[in-house]
Amino acid sequence: MEDHSNDDRLNGACHTPLLEQENDCSPRKDDMTGELHLTARQRTLALVAAMASISVVGASLGLSVPLLAFALEARGMSATFIGINTAMAGVAVVFFAPLIPLAAARLGVRSVMIMGLAGGAITTLAFYFIEPLWMWFPLRFLYGGSLAILFVLSEFWINAISPEKRRGLIMGVYATTLSLGFAAGPALLAVLGKWGVAPYAAGAILFVVAAAPILLAGSSAPRLPEKAHVNLIPFLLAAPAATLAALVFGAVETGGMTFVPLYGLAIGYSATASALLVSLLALGNVLVQIPIGMLSDRVDRRKLLLVLGLLGTAGAAGMPYVIHFPRLFESTIFIWGGLVAGLYTVGLAHLGSRFRGAQLASANAAFIVCYSIGMLSGPPLLGAGMDIWYPHGLPITAAVLFGLYSIVAGWRILRSGTE
Questions:
Q1: What pTM, to 2 d.p., does this model score?
Q2: pLDDT for 176-228, tens place per residue?
């Protein structure tokens, strides 16, 4: 049974009819909600356009993050400096995300996304030409703002036009293609090298290329009514199981990618084998999302989020007990990586089934804000855990985060059952 206790405060967003298939050749707009009624072909093309665009953006991001870290290290900057500079992008997401639905309602989703792509291209190239390092902080902030636009609106786009019966599958495909884009970025950097203008130009060109699918989508892009929400707090309260899933995912994914190799070293793995643990974590992310998405189309998504939280808790808590069995430990890392990312996929699908129109755009903005907060807080939390409970601080801290999330998800289910 779904929990609709907070729907009234969101103007009945959950009761808007789902998108229907029409037989004419042009999309029609619902004047009350701003939703488009698309044919199956139009919907498919629009979904492909949004996924292709954000995956190319993911490749640029996957290239740029290590590139900028290498550049700062080569200029003698400390790890603390590099970390603070990188964090500016996350701060920008928290700042800009609440404003994005309002801008998209007034200017159009496609127009604002093109602005975000232009901003990403310009700032990526500017890192090469602007030498004063203090300028890299406002540059990172603007770069993060551009990314916020693209992720908030692309996820709104995909969620808004996904049919309910296949929403989880589509979110799984989205998460998989985005992960592949992230993986392609470092591979491209390895080919181009980290010196000279070439990698910066490549990152900028990828943003330009990502504009092509958005432009080709034409009028199939979703639209927002003029009334949009800037205050995201009601959306955090209305669907905490979904929004907090993004926070836990952001914390554990970012912290895990940072500290899993260090955990490997601490328990006796070689440097090469420890690095491969990160690949296993990422591979689990890529391969498990579509099956989890398909499963979410067949079960109550809130209950599935609870199951993922409990399995995440058990997987993390069990790691210290399987480290002496390498194949079992590596399998645990692989499966655990998929479960962690499943929170994001199922959380997004849950939002799409709860909200429509401007409410969905604002809910997606709240989702991205929570992910960014997790991304900013995860590394210091997991790092502190490793210092306190060495060598098993990483799985212990991750288990605590998953456990707290499971309590919230379980409480929401119990609360809805008593109303």
A1: 0.81
A2: 998 888 888 888 888 888 889 999 999 999 999 999 998 888 777 788 766 66
Q: What is the dihedral of CA 318, 323, 325, 331, to 10 degrees?
A: 60
Assign a CATH topology to domain 38-228.
Growth Hormone; Chain: A; (1.20.1250)
pLDDT tens, residue by residue, 47-79? 888 899 989 998 998 888 888 888 888 888 886
Tokens of 45: 């093309």
Residue 36: the pLDDT is 57
Residue 28 three-state SS: strand
Q: Do the domains 38-228 and 229-419 sit in the same CATH topology, yes or no?
A: yes
Residue/partner pairs of 5-13 with CB below 8 Å, 24 or more apart: 5/415, 5/416, 5/419, 6/234, 6/237, 6/238, 6/239, 7/238, 9/234, 9/238, 10/234, 10/235, 10/238, 10/355, 10/359, 11/359, 13/354, 13/355, 13/356, 13/357, 13/359, 13/360
Q: Please, are residues 203 and 381 in contact by the beta-carbon 8 Å criterion?
A: no
Domains of the chain, by residue range, sit at: 38-228, 229-419
Q: Give SS3 for 126.
A: helix
Give dist(CA 317, CA 164) in Å, integer. Answer: 35
CA distances from 182 to 24, 172, 202 (A): 38, 15, 14
Contact by Cβ (8 Å): 3, 418: no
Report domain 229-419's class.
mainly alpha
